[in-house]
Each structure stands twice: as structure tokens, then as C-alpha cells.
Amino acid sequence: MIVCGHIRSCPQRGIVDTQDQVLQVRAPRKQRRTIKERREIVQETLVPGTSVSRVARRHDVNANQVFYWRKLYREGLLGGGAAAPLLPVKVSEEQPGTAAKWDSPALRSGTMEVKVSKGTIRIAGVIDVVALRTVLECLAR
């Protein structure tokens, strides 16, 4: 402290070492998650009423990363992910006298009955397998 051009001494309570000290500061190490771990984190977020942000924080992952993993999961790219589940199938014998008389298996007519949680779908006549597959995939979602 300078008072009227003279240096006035101040009592010191301790000595401060002003030498430069080298501090080692490391950035947090990025944790690599296995595909199985990613899939498990995503599956936690699929429970109704679950917050993606809270699940991400609990696993120390950025929420945007979890949303990206969810996208991969829906596309089936997280191994065993959201591939359509198999549906139970029951094959019944045709009614006597209703056997198809067409030569090509693709052109045979018949009746197909698909039971789903909201009801039953009956398809009669010639069945377009591509259209049927599309309908079943939409119902599985």
C-alpha cells in the first residue's frame, strides 16, 4: 500500500507462495458403451411415463445421444432392437370342397384370419402378400 509516496508495510498473516505450480487437469474420459448397454438404456426409455432426460442423467449420457440411440433402435441397428415381434400363427385345414383349383400358389384364393388385440382381420379371396406384410408391420408398431 502506498501512502503519500512512501511504502507502508502491512502485517501479513501468512506467506503466499507465488511460484507457478503445474496443475494436471484432465478432461472427463469418454465412456464407450457397448451395443448391449446402449440397447438397455434405450429400452429403459421406452417404458410409458419415463423421462429420456432422467434416464440419460442416471447413466451419465447426454440426452441427445440417447435420442439418437432410440432412432437406431427403431431402425433395428442396435442389434436385436425393434425388429417386429413374431406373431403366433394357427393354420387350419381348408373346408371340404373349397380347395383352390388354381395352378400357381401365388394366385390361390382362400380366407385368412388374423387376430389382433383390437379385433380380428379377415382377408378373403386372392391375398397380395406384399400388401398383407405392410398391414401386419403397421399393426405390430
Structure summary:
The chain is an alpha+beta fold and 141 residues long.
List strands and helices in order, with pairings.
Blueprint (H helix, E strand, L loop, with lengths): L1 E2 L2 E2 L27 H11 L6 H7 L4 H12 L34 E8 L2 E8 L2 H12 L1
Antiparallel strand pairs: 1-2, 3-4
Please compute the radius of gyration using only Cα atoms. 34 Å
Q: What fraction, in percent, of the residue positions are helical?
A: 25-40%
Main pleated-sheet profile: 2 strands, antiparallel
Question: How many DSSP H or I helices?
Answer: 4
Give the beta-strand count. Answer: 4
- Overall SS class: alpha+beta
Mean pLDDT rating: 74
Overall outline: rod-shaped
State the low-pLDDT regions, or none: 98-103
Q: List the secondary-structure elements in sequence, H or E.
A: EEHHHEEH
Query: Into which percentage range does the β-strand content fall?
Result: 5-15%
Query: Widest sheet: strand order?
Result: 1-2
Distance N to C terminus: 77 Å
